[in-house]
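Example complex used in Figure S2.
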Amino acid sequence: MSVNYVNLDKSDNFKKLLETPVCQIKEELSSDRIKKYSASAGAGLVYNFAGKKVNNTILTLLQGLADEQQLIEKYKLLLNGDVINTGEKRMVLHHHTRGMKLDDVVSEGQDMTKFYDGEKKKIYDFAKKVHNKEILGSTGKPFDTVVQVGIGGSDLGPRAIYLALKNYNKPVLNAHFIANVDPDDANNVLSSLNFETTLFVLVSKSGTTQETLTNQKFVLNKMEKANISGLVPLKHFVSVTSATSPLAADTNYLSSFFIDNNIGGRFSSSSAVGGCILSLALGPEIFERFLSGAREADKQALNSNIFENAALLDALIGVYENNVLNMKNTAVIPYSESMSRFPAHLQQLDMESNGKSVNRFGDRVSYSTGVSIFGEPGTNSQHSFFQYIHQATSIIPVQFIGFRKPQIDADMEYQGSTSGKKLNANLVAQMTAMGVGKDDENKNKNFDGERPTSLLHADQLTPETMGAILAHFENKVMFQGFTWNINSFDQEGVQLGKLLANKVLNNQMDDVLKSYADLMI
Amino acid sequence: MSVNYVNLDKSDNFKKLLETPVCQIKEELSSDRIKKYSASAGAGLVYNFAGKKVNNTILTLLQGLADEQQLIEKYKLLLNGDVINTGEKRMVLHHHTRGMKLDDVVSEGQDMTKFYDGEKKKIYDFAKKVHNKEILGSTGKPFDTVVQVGIGGSDLGPRAIYLALKNYNKPVLNAHFIANVDPDDANNVLSSLNFETTLFVLVSKSGTTQETLTNQKFVLNKMEKANISGLVPLKHFVSVTSATSPLAADTNYLSSFFIDNNIGGRFSSSSAVGGCILSLALGPEIFERFLSGAREADKQALNSNIFENAALLDALIGVYENNVLNMKNTAVIPYSESMSRFPAHLQQLDMESNGKSVNRFGDRVSYSTGVSIFGEPGTNSQHSFFQYIHQATSIIPVQFIGFRKPQIDADMEYQGSTSGKKLNANLVAQMTAMGVGKDDENKNKNFDGERPTSLLHADQLTPETMGAILAHFENKVMFQGFTWNINSFDQEGVQLGKLLANKVLNNQMDDVLKSYADLMI
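Predicted assembly (1042 residues):
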């Protein structure tokens, strides 16, 4: 396969999109369109885009853009182990952690399917032994709690998924998370724990993450100070790290599971980074179902027809909204309290991947790349920032996520409808209101409409659905990166802050840094 | 006092700002500037704006804009009970709940100081009796848990403040919150509770909020189904509502506390809406200290000199960034895990207040009003979307919040520094990196800098500091609303969604609404 990596503004279809008249949602929106403007995302997840500012003319050009930018071909090359992460000169292999591949891929002499499956099996075996009480705490008590110590990609995704699924199936072990170097975070979490029955999962690919190592030392210190007879702190720790990291060499841990350099933190939820804590907390069966949903979505994303590939279409409409309609934000609103922290994960996934100003060759691009992402669950957000979405001077497209059934089978009727029905009545009411609006002579009560919306929907938030939602957004972000011709898989923008923080800690400050430090330290 | 309410684009100073050359942070930033560009926010809270794209010329014009738009005079009129909320024809009296006033204000024949102080005293008396075990659950057991049932302004502010202060002082009662009409929210919270020892606080000003009444019925139902001998469900409920609401008339509640129509939900944290749960959970002394901090910030906000009024200056710089520099987002980043939910509260406060397209007279404005607000705590956010802030094509100003001491006095040293020092080293490193940047021939490792930052800092996140931070932002939002000549105190944009949701529930749908409903219900 031979592909060309070219900037968005070289695309003929993109140029035509810039010249094509913008369409009006309120003129287009109809029962027929709501039925037709729908694309599968895999695993029962469906993307409805009837509320977007697109029509058949624009969709044809978006299909042309996808073909011209060879998005599916580039996805296939990524799957096959091309060095897509040009900045760090690495492969991009997160799909392989859920068994999605076209051919075998070998990295540094290692068959990567064997590597990922092998680590997964080690984790599953370990988790089962913990659950069966074959593996106990150092004072002989069974574990009832697991705490992830990690930050960024080692925290946001696993945490969001744990919260999303803990009401689906009662956790086997209760999970907690320590991420922030703020000592109040660790102290707060530790205050409620019984060290004898708690297992810690230390996650750091490099084995050098400042916050994570500090927090580990913090925990170890507290365990020692607790002065519990027979307690061996490190025997309450497993590590998830790369095989070459300093952590991996330390045999004092209860166990170690390995990750590799071909997966960035924000794409690591389906690797051992998510797999270890999720298998311990929810069970290997639940994690396996989560992976199967992600794999289904990955397969769907291979389709070159935008009407049969939700991730691809979602990506292209996002580019259209950003680069043609000049909309620089997207709100992600799950109508599901269980998904309360998923927008925070997506914020990282999308903004860290596509918040770039140079293309994959290191040349500055002359167009806008990634948008800002934020969100809170509905209906809560209706009582918060939806005023802004309906009536502000800036337009924010909304990506709704909804489920036909609640997770916990204990709903009740009040005034003729269940809570679940009220929830979804609000969801569809918001989609309609944002698109169609309502004229009013009192301009303060007028709704212009023309606020773009889309809906990812499924029957229920199951492990499979959660996997598919995660993979949908991972693939959307990837396709957008290809469309903009940027590298979505490095993060050089985080380096300068680290460097300067170390200068403060090592007392090597220039005047400006010193003056700021004098305010705070 | 006679004031003129005029649109921003009529202002001479604003026109001059549009013509004034933009200044470069990296050229201006110096040790001297960091010391000088600092304004008091009251109660020990200080606003540092050395990292903003302003110089003395621009600041002089911003002072001129403040004077021209009569911002302090309008604040005084608001304090004195003018009908500032023109849409709903109401006063705006949240300052009075913390004792901030210039003169007595009478609303509907009632002296409002007496009203707010009276309800506060009722709450304090009630809370003390609960704490002293003079008031018990209906089966004779003392209360150990309090649950707020409310949404939007009845949820986000009180929840954020509870989380912010629960590590400062061990809670007297543990607090939980049920907001979402999603049944998984209530079921999840209720699953961990002992009904006999739980007190619920039902908060709805109108007494008709769909989600809140549904959730109350949900809770009552679960309590009845629990079949606990002697349990009288409504005797585990207090209500916080307006004196004229249907709830207020019901004498079956354990107690009722009143709020009034002169305070919107998002400004109600210092009223009985926040006061009831916070006094029960944290104690009246803590809530009283919180109010005193807010009052100090309110007093500081009376100063007409922008260098001595942080809320005013923060507001004006925000307008400059939005309307001159064309920056439409602001990230709010507390370097404090305890403040993890404060950005969500601020998102509501700011976006619901200033996400408007018409001025206070109902005429459409021709300029941009409120910005989008989002945020997560540092250092977590460094490992998430800070890549975007450093290197994306869109620029997002960052409002940092930091404290010199952690809340919990149990920090530890590792590799020569405490966790708290590492936290703040990162904070000042980020401020420096965003402003100054770093040139690199490899454009992928290049940092342009010129990302505006500001810092609100204090010694510690105490009740007083939390009150001052809350009031700072409430006053900032108010001053921005005055500057844009909009009404920051109504929210007509939430009405259409409510109307359409009821149409779904009452089966009165048009084709579009029905087709969306068919997807989800």
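The mean pLDDT of chain B is 97. DSSP finds 19 helices and 15 strands in chain B.
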